[in-house]
What we know:
Structural class: mainly alpha
Distance between the termini: 99 Å
Order of helices and strands: HHHHHEEHE
Strand order of the largest sheet: 1-2-3
Number of strands: 3
Amino acid sequence: xxxxxxxxxxxxxxxxxxxxxxxxxxxxxxxxxxxxxxxxxxxxxxxxxxxxxxxxxxxxxxxxxxxxxxxxxxxxxxxxxxxxxxxxxxxxxxxxxxxxxxxxxxxxxxxxxxxxxxxxxxxxxxxxxxxxxxxxxxxxxxxxxxxxxxxxxxxxxxxxxxxxxxxxxxxxxxxxxxxxxxxxx
Length: 185
């Protein structure tokens, strides 16, 4: 379909929608029209983002003219969706990890399972799973755009655990039942 013009693609979409409408299933036809609308919005947003990024004045011009495009989540997602992203998976994984709110280290990616292990390199609270879940989710979100081949993220902590909070209460009374201290008896 790469040689098709926008007009040819539009005609083909109309033909498919007309065939669905002939089927008589109004719900199916409405769903198909919504899919087309959502895809048009998605691709329109991507094209607008490319135009915006390319239209920004850069002084000096970037060493890699594709750099701003490849660093953008929307554009990177579109490139990955079509197998057009020029960077390899390790580079895209590193790009995604560099955008996280907390430093992490790539502890290994298993292409067979799609699981990426990350090592947390700085303290994030107590180290319990509740405090690491937002970081794991941020990694999942960034990787979805930059490296969709990563289908799972596991976190491990390399930072020394912060000591548990020491609870200090009042000291038990040294006075006996008679009011005198045990040392004075």
